[in-house]
């Protein structure tokens, strides 16, 4: 068991808040720190806006209309992916699983792309992405149950099969999409970006992200029991089957909500729980909140880079993959030296 | 056909046009037996072939994406038979050749892009022994003119090609004179959005970017050297005077006027967002390039005399023998989508339908 400082979680929470405030000041449009602080204060304080504000309409637009919904959405999405990854790894007792591996991301992407192809509304896109993610997970789970003897390996293999199937369907949707009106949106959405984030996206995605995230945090005790193994968990009074389905549904909700507003953002759900585990250990009572906070901070950092490194915005999914793969390789190397810390 | 014949009767290649091209645009010799009677094309050369030949008789096959531009625009009215041209592309839907289908057509020229993924697009055709003619992507005025002359040679219509080149040059010369008369007027900053979700503008060094300059504007995104998406904040930094939306995507000016994120942009405040007309070839080739420039110049400099509607009607009557109705013109000019934008009344019919 790793001994951790009791202040780590409060410090992570403070870092996350600071990162949100910092991110509000980051962008292509120049807004001075003083102006940004005045705008932020005007948003936070209940006093009515001054009739003659000291900022320009463009500065207000940059901070309030463009950055604020995006920063909040990125924070929630990062937290959701961190939580989803930590929960899946705990439930399946395998540090190599993440939402990408078990097919949820590909399934959600299929639902979202289908919605773009069929001109669904934003709400329709969210629901379609959710249905795709849940459907993929259901298929993976059903396929895994065909495996003899149970265990984790069939779940991972089934996830890989289902992900490959949905990836093929995604290719088919791109093939039939109109190259002028649909294909660019699909492709850009598929590689992941928060570029089009709006208040409407935040209104759509925040409730399911918050509800499912809170649900998983409330289940952190039971996840500790599940990570002991099915037999031990059942012996301690846990209804293993029902609990797994509940966790699966909550994870699918988190991932689908994130995919619906920003496309596939890979590696976060896989790498962030490992980083969090290094800070607070494997006890899910601390690991889940830590994964959420590290996920929020990590994704905010990646998004800040995506929108400021060059004049043309980089897709965040590409950045998380570029950063995530070496981090994961390092963790793999470290695990080979010490063994994965699971308990 | 008769009208074009009358228009171009007696046209011989003028002095200065030089010898007809003997090589394609990668330097390879043209097929031995010309003119070609059965051609396959994957690119926008289709539109010029139809214009030169006034029909589809020589077009044995084409990519579905270029045929779709014809059938959904004004060229579809002139050449309804284009809808029956066989599709000759494989999986990617654009330029990847379906070699077996092309071999079955036994063409005497296959027109394909060069420099754009040659190993996938060009090499399979050459391996199959097909008579490939390489075309460079049109990046400049000189490219458009060279391509028109090459297609004139291939289709046995060098005189017609030369007449169209001369017409093109004359129209731009007239526009340049009109613009030169606007003493002291500044060039408005124009942002041409090729896609609106994500925001992908036309950057510098491109043919379309040069068109904006040629039409009396300044490309707001000239600093971009490559194709890619930008942030909305970058557009706030550029703060363009005018925003153009690609002719054939789903974007509408109204959506930008209603979007709070665009409210601080000068073009939106002054209601100067326009959807580019569709025309027959997306308002962009040797025939419609001057029309695009006239359209834009009149919007950027409302002091110019208004004659776009008349020019458009005359162009289609003279070159395609087509009489465009008011409804045709309204559809082409996106009259409904652009009706609420500033200065657009000049392009609308005097008596609303």
TrEMBL record, chain A:
One of its GO terms (biological process) is siderophore-iron import into cell. Gene3D superfamilies: ABC transporter involved in vitamin B12 uptake, BtuC (1.10.3470.10). Pfam families: FecCD. This is ABC transporter permease. It comes from Pararhodospirillum oryzae. It is found in: Cell membrane. Keywords: Cell membrane, Membrane, Transmembrane, Transmembrane helix, Transport. The chain crosses the membrane at residues 60-84, 96-118, 124-143, 155-177, 243-272, 284-302, 314-333. SUPFAM superfamilies: ABC transporter involved in vitamin B12 uptake, BtuC.
From TrEMBL, chain B:
The keyword Cytoplasm does not apply. Residues 38-304 form the Fe/B12 periplasmic-binding domain. The keyword Transport does not apply. Residues 1-17 form the signal peptide. Keywords: Signal. Pfam families: Peripla_BP_2. PROSITE patterns: FE_B12_PBP. One of its GO terms (biological process) is cellular response to iron ion. This is Iron(III) dicitrate-binding protein. It comes from Pararhodospirillum oryzae.
């Amino acid at each position: 068991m790793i001994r951790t400082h009791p202040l780590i979680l409060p410090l992570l929470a403070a870092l996350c808040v600071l990162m949100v405030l910092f991110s509000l000041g980051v962008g292509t449009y120049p807004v001075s720190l003083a102006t940004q602080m005045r705008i932020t204060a005007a948003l936070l304080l209940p006093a009515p806006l001054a009739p003659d504000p000291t900022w320009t309409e463009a500065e207000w637009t940059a901070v309030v209309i463009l950055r604020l919904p995006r920063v909040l959405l990125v924070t929630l999405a990062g937290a959701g992916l961190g939580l989803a990854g930590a929960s899946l790894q705990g439930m399946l007792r395998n540090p190599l699983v993440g939402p990408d591996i078990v097919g949820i991301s590909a399934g959600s992407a299929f639902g979202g792309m289908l919605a773009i192809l069929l001109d669904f509304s934003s709400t329709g896109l969210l629901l379609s992405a959710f249905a795709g993610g849940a459907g993929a997970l259901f298929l993976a789970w059903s396929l895994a149950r065909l495996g003899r003897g149970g265990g984790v390996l069939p779940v991972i293999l089934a996830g890989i099969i289902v992900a490959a199937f949905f990836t093929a369907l995604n290719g088919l949707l791109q093939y039939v999409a109109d190259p002028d009106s649909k294909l660019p949106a699909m492709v850009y959405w598929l590689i992941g970006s928060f570029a089009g984030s709006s208040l409407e996206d935040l209104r759509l995605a925040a409730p399911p992200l918050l509800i499912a995230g809170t649900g998983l945090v409330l289940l952190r005790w039971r996840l500790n029991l599940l990570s002991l193994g099915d037999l031990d968990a059942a012996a301690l009074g846990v209804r293993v089957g029902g609990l797994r389905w509940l966790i699966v549904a909550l994870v699918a909700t988190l991932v689908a909500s994130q995919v619906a507003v920003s496309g596939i953002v890979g590696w976060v759900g896989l790498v962030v729980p490992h980083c969090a585990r290094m800070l607070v250990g494997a006890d899910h009572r601390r690991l889940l909140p830590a994964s959420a906070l590290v996920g929020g901070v990590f994704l905010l950092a990646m998004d800040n880079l995506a929108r400021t490194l060059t004049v043309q915005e980089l897709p965040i999914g590409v950045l998380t993959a570029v950063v995530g793969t070496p981090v994961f390789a390092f963790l793999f190397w470290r695990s080979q030296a010490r063994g994965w810390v699971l308990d | 056909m008769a009208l074009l014949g009358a228009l171009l009767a007696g046209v011989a290649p003028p002095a200065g046009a030089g010898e007809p091209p003997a090589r394609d645009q990668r330097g390879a010799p043209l097929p031995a037996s010309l003119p070609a009677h059965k051609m396959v094309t994957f690119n926008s050369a289709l539109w010029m072939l139809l214009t030169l030949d006034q029909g589809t008789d020589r077009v044995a096959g084409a990519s579905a994406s270029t045929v779709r531009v014809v059938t959904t625009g004004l060229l579809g009215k002139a050449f309804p038979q284009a809808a029956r041209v066989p599709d000759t592309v494989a999986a990617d839907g654009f330029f990847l050749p379906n070699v077996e289908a092309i071999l079955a057509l036994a063409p005497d020229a296959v027109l394909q892009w060069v420099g754009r993924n040659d190993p996938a697009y060009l090499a399979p055709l050459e391996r199959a022994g097909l008579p490939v003619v390489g075309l460079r992507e049109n990046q400049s005025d000189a490219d458009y003119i060279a391509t028109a002359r090459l297609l004139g040679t291939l289709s046995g219509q060098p005189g017609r090609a030369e007449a169209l080149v001369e017409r093109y040059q004359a129209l731009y010369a007239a526009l340049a004179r009109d613009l030169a008369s606007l003493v002291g007027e500044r060039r408005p900053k124009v942002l041409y959005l090729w896609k609106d979700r994500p925001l992908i503008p036309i950057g510098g060094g491109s043919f379309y970017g040069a068109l904006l300059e040629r039409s009396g504007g300044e490309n707001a995104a000239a600093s971009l050297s490559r194709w890619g998406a930008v942030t909305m904040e970058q557009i706030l930094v550029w703060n363009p005077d005018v925003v153009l939306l690609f002719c054939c995507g789903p974007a509408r000016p109204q959506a930008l006027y209603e979007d709070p994120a665009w409210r601080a942009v000068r073009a939106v405040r002054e209601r100067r967002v326009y959807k580019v007309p569709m025309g027959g070839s997306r308002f962009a080739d040797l025939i419609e390039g001057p029309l695009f420039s006239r359209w834009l110049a009149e919007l950027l400099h409302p002091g110019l005399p208004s004659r776009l509607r008349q020019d458009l009607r005359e162009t289609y009557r003279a070159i395609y023998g087509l009489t465009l109705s008011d409804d045709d013109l309204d559809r082409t000019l996106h009259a409904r989508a652009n009706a609420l934008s500033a200065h657009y009344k000049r392009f609308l019919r005097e008596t609303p339908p």
